[in-house]
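Retro notes
What went well: the complex prediction finally ran end to end.
Inputs used:
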Amino acid sequence: MAKITAGIATSHVPAIGAAFDQGRDQDEYWKPVFDGYEWAKEWIKDNTPDVVILCYNDHASAMMLDIVPTFALGFAEDFEPADEGWGRRDVPMVYNNTDLAGHIAEQLVIDNFDITIMNQMDVDHGLTVPLSLMFGRVSEWPCKVIPLAVNVTQFPTPSGERCWQLGAAIRDAVACFPEDLNVQIWGTGGMSHQLQGPRAGLINPDFDNEFLDKLIDGTDDLRKITRLDYLRESGSEGIELIMWLIMRAALGEKVEELHRFYHVPASNTAVGHVVLKPLD
Amino acid sequence: MRERLYPLEDLEDIPGTTVFTARRSRQAYHLHKFCMSLMDAENRKRFKADERAYLDTFRMSDDQKQAVLDRDFNQLIELGGNIYFLVKLSNTDGWSTQKAVGSMTGMTADEYAAMMRAGGRSPEGQRSKRGGN
Ligand SMILES: [Fe+2]
């Protein structure tokens, strides 16, 4: 049977991708950011999954203009890195496991999640920067990836509680897939940041660190955080943290924190990163 | 009516912050169509060759066109825009996201970068217009 063996959370700042792509990762500014991923990069060499279910948000690269799906599951065989205005990132094509993606889609709809199926889309920095951070410079990604895009841009966005329920449903769906597969689930985005207006640059380390603490065993509190709370406490783009809740719920009740990293700043953003292992 | 988790008008209570709604999305539809067109190298070339002529191929308001020409990101957000679309424009200009975002704060790029290096903007006094906290 397939099994979710680990959860990874990380911010997905585009400037991290640019620093990585331009070989500036050892610069004074960027080295502390990339150093925070060294542990996980080593760990994942021995724990490479067959498939990653990668929760991210599309930053108006493939969606959000004509169609605004609340939850969208990537169903193409492959996904090309998007051109976000300065050319496509020179990183490998992303390949799907459509058997598992199809199974998850079917199970989620039975579970009353009316998700959108994406038969064609490019994937932006929200998906490719976490892959670069975890796997470094490679000629092909060492695993398949099922993209799961969440609307965190246009109000109304799904609640943290709904994201939690989706994560729990994904856990059930994976657990009943008959093929033996090592599956990881990643939640990306966050932590506190605001990319607009006179309040831009807001960072809230107290909020972020409390979120990281509660991600282990205080998740009831995290599920209650509203869009309004995220806006007030973590900036207008801090809402991306709801994607971490999908990841966390998919791991079940108890987890062990294998690794944690927090750093300010990367460009406009507080960087958070954890590696979690389910205990049951 | 279903019970809301918080009153909708509270979304207007955050200092210096605009919540991107379906109505704003409609207001900025053609502006955003322009922004997303810049995800193509050929279109970026056409835009750079004659910005005004390129903008005139989109059904944007004159105010929106002017704000694009001025690279006035606060005004673009006022006119419905959302930053995830708008960075396609600043990326086309070769700006970092930090430069585009910092341009909305009234600080110089250096001042904004220094604030971020020093830990960013504190949430103190930035949570609520009403509460002043
Ligand atoms: Fe993001």
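What we learned: Chain B has a mean pLDDT of 97.
What to try next: split runs per interface for comparison.
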